[in-house]
Design goal:
4-stranded antiparallel β-sheet; alpha+beta; 5-stranded antiparallel β-sheet; single chain
């Protein structure tokens, strides 16, 4: 066989017989292919590992944020209380602050929701009772922060103008961000902005 025409170099083994060998170009091509396959495998494994951590964080953040919003607007039945009705059932706004809202609900309960900037939680108290974080299972690995520059609670009057006068409040916008850890995907964490609103009925 004419090895030179095939582009394969010939060598001699210890017995003096001719044998075929790879050229340096072929060797480099094989190494490049192996390198590509290895790097692709590493990339796939890294993404699978990252998603195995990220997806649970994502689901937990979304569940906690939705539970907080449901609690504030509709109410929630928690330890130590019968069902505490939320802002949807407010009869009177007592105080309106960017980080807290105090109101009387249709059951005559005095309810306050407030954002704790130090502990990064939203809490609730009823009739001056103990302050409880919401939801009760909110983990220390998560935090509640402002969504951009927006206040947690924004109050509007009958003309849709922002107001801080409790008696003038006719609607409330609630917005906050829930995040796990740093909230960055690169750190295998997650963050979600939540936004909702509720009308406040005027009772005589």
């Amino acid at each position: 066989m004419d090895y030179d025409k095939l582009g394969i170099r010939q060598g001699k083994d210890m017995t003096g017989n001719h044998k075929a060998a790879f050229t340096i170009i072929e060797f480099i091509m094989v190494m490049v292919i192996i390198g590509v396959l290895v790097s692709t495998g590493v990339f796939i494994m890294l993404n699978l590992t990252q998603n195995s951590v990220f997806l649970p964080n994502k689901l937990n953040v979304e569940m906690a944020g939705q539970d907080i919003m449901d609690d504030i607007i509709d109410g929630y039945q928690s330890q130590g209380y019968s069902r505490v009705k939320g802002l949807r059932f407010s009869r009177q706004i007592v105080s309106a602050n960017p980080d807290a809202v105090n109101f009387i609900n249709s059951d005559g309960q005095n309810v306050q929701f407030s954002w704790d900037n130090t502990n990064k939680i939203i809490s609730r108290s009823v009739d001056g009772g103990p302050v409880q974080k919401i939801p009760y299972y909110f983990p220390n690995s998560m935090s509640i922060v402002k969504s951009g520059s927006s206040d947690i609670f924004i109050f509007y009057d009958a003309n849709s103008a922002v107001t801080s006068t409790a008696s003038d409040v006719r609607s409330i916008k609630i917005t906050f961000r829930v995040q796990s850890g740093s909230g960055n995907f690169q750190d295998w964490q997650h963050q979600v902005d939540f936004l909702s609103g509720v009308a406040v009925k005027k009772f005589q």
